[in-house]
Structure formats: C-alpha cells, structure tokens
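Input record (Table S2, row 444):
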Amino acid sequence: MMPETDRRIRGIGPAGRKDSMITAIVGANWGDEGKGKITDMFACEADIVIRFQGGANAGHTIINPYGKFALHQLPSGVFNKNTVNIIGNGVALNIPSLVREIGQITQNGVPAPRLMVSDRTQIVMPYHILLDQYEEDRLSERQFGSTRSGIAPFYSDKYAKIGFQVCELFDEKALWEKLHAVCEYKNALIVHLYHKPALDPDALLEELAGYRESIRPYVADVRTFLRDAVREDRQILLEGQLGALRDPDFGIYPFTTSSSPLAGYGCVGAGLPPYRIGRIVAVTKAYSSAVGAGAFTSEIFGPDAEQLRRLGGDAGEFGATTGRPRRMGWFDCVATRYGCEVQGATEAVLTAIDVLGYLDRIPVCTGYEIDGTRTDTFPVTGLLNRAKPVLEWLPGWKTDLRGMTRWEDLPAEAKAYVAFIEQRIGVPIRMVSTGPRREEIIYR
Ligand code: GDP
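Output record (guanosine-5'-diphosphate complex):
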C-alpha cells in the first residue's frame, strides 16, 4: 500500500480518488514571502485563480514577460488569457482601485483580463478608508501600522451586518434606505469622536452609482460557477494574501489583518468544498521581513538590517503597496513551522535564497527564550512580546545563486541550509526560488 505521504503528494485522497485539483498558495509568515511569483508560476497551469480574502492593502510583486507589476486585488492569473480570475466573496473590494489596476495592466500590453467578481463580495466604502485614517491618527503612538486602506473598518462592518454586498448596488431604493441608516450611525462616530465632517448619504449614493457601472461587467454568481468548475475537475488556484502570522485567530493578535489568510478560509472566502483543497503550498522566504507593528522575534537592526534590506527582494525590501521599508530578520524556524502548521501546508517553497550569498555565516532562529526558558513552540502574543531569539549559525556559500535552476548545481552549504530549514519546519520544501523571475526556480 502506498504510504500516506506519497498519496498526499500525488494528490490521491483516502478513497483513492483524485481530489487535489484545488491548490492554495499561502504565506507561512508575515506576508511578502514571494507568493506573487509562485502564484504567477502556478497560474500558468490554472483554469481559475481566486482571491478569497484581504483587499487593496497588500501587493504581490510579479515579474513576467509583460513587465513588473504589483497586483493588489487582481488575481495573479490575469496574465494568462485562458485563466478565469475571480474576486471571491471574502475579499474587501475597493472598486476604484480595482478599476485603476485593470487600467495599469492593460496599458502595459496585458490583454483585458477574464475577471469575475462575486455578487456577494462586499464593498470598501469611502468612509471605511476615512475611518481607518481617523482612527490611526487618533491612536497616534499606539497605532497598528495600518495601511489605511479601510480594511479593519470594512470587516468590522461586515460582521456587524452593516456592510454592502456588490449585489446591493443594483437595488437603488433599498440602497438609498440602508445608506441613510448607516450614515446616521457612522456620523455619530465621525462627528463626535473624530470631530470630522459628517457623511452625506446622497453624495454617497451618487458615488456608488459610479461604482455600480464600473463593476457591472464583472459581477457574477461565482458560487454557482465554482460549483460547476469543481464538478468539471477544473484546475483551481486559491491565492492567499499576507501570511499565517497575520491571521486574526492564529496570528500575532492584534497586530494581524482583519480577514483570515489561511488556506482553510479559501473555502469560505470563495465558496468551495473544504475537502477539495488537496495541495497547500506555504511560501516562506530564506530570511524574514515584516511590515507594520507587532513582535518580530528574529528582527535585526542597524547596518545588518540595512544590508539585508538593500539586497532583498528584487530591488530591496520595501512594501509593494506602501513603499515602507520592511523590518528585517533572520529565518525564524519557530514562527515558520507554526505558520506551516496553521496553514495545513502539504509542502513549502523557500524563496529568495539568492539574497543570502553575501554572508560568511548565516544566523537562523531555532528557538525562543521566554523568561529564561527555551521553547520551540510559537506562543500567544503576551509571551511572544517577551521572546528573545535563540540563534544558530550555518555556513554561508558565498556564491551568487541567482537564476540557478538545478538542485545539483547548488553549493553544498546552500543544500544544507535548505535541508536544515526543511527539517525544522516539518514540511517538504519542494521548490527553491533563486530570483524574482518565473524561470528562476529549482524543483526538488
Ligand atoms: P508577496 O506579497 O508574498 O507576493 O511578496 P512580495 O511580492 O510583496 O515580495 C516579495 C519580493 O521578493 C518581491 O520583490 C519579489 O519580486 C521578490 N522575490 C520573489 N522571489 C524571489 C527570489 O527568489 N529571489 C529574490 N531575490 N527576490 C524574490
């Protein structure tokens, strides 16, 4: 009988049925792991690529024959003319920003994408963005480091049941009534807490009429479309945003995002049967970086951080959405193993190994020391705030690995680095990325 792990890798479920056609590409860390590049690679083979959570608050950097792009809301399948790209119901849809993004790619020669937006997707309202800004300003020193794109107020309203689904744009009378009710409530906060001008529901209604016309060509009953696609065994890719450590439940709460970036949420945020997600690819970088506030145990500072930041990514480690310099750190085995576990990863991809070629010895965080006790279990936020990194040093390879495509060609030290991490994170590393371009990849 085939061992269970082999069955999983080959995509054969317990009943011997082929059931791995849904693949999720997700982040094992704080985001910025290089998911964009990996999703773009996988997307070449996919019939359907779906965004299932998050919004315009983060970006995926993609470099392909059309050029370099930072996609914020568009799924990474937009570069393939045969791929259907879906914005799922779990996404925070910023309509003006989506329209701008479509314009940016088509102006660069990419054919108009095949795009579907779920009629159940909720809309980021202009006041969500205002409220995000007002609140971060009010918090001042205590702010969360939000990208100020309205994401937290958006999801708060969604779960408070005062959000607006795309389908509501098409019933103007009901929309007008709901807008008046919501504005009354919002204005209490805006005027009395933030001392800002009140919202005018009639002006908002007009703005939403513009939203309706721009989104109209894409709105569809995505749930039914995906039901049929699953029945037809079409190749479906779920594209996660940010990473496991930003999950509102399992991440570094409250320094998390407001929707779940976990593969499991893909079922809810897109409308798919959970048992059909057979392959969960967790992307992790050969070193760490993070944007925004919150504990970051393996963080480094000063010249070491500056050097890694300058050499990292494809042109330095700066946020794809905000341009903010990313906080830098060494690879964190504790956080990454945890990230892979909560993602339910069946495999991992290690990106940006080419960046580390300048180091004589490479520090790796293999444990945390909390109040004098060593642990390799990722703790809750209160304890994490007190964690100090336990580092081990691995020999560097002092070679430029950029663009390598064959495992055999890697220096022994680089192979040992990958094997060390693989052993610590407990998930097979099936791919090693040696540069930002599609073809700069090693399959193992
Ligand atoms: P994402 O949000 O997970 O897609 O990550 P980002 O795209 O925001 O950040 C990853 C950065 O690393 C981008 O600048 C990518 O072009 C770049 N990148 C991805 N893979 C590699 C790699 O293997 N090597 C190098 N040097 N850069 C990479």
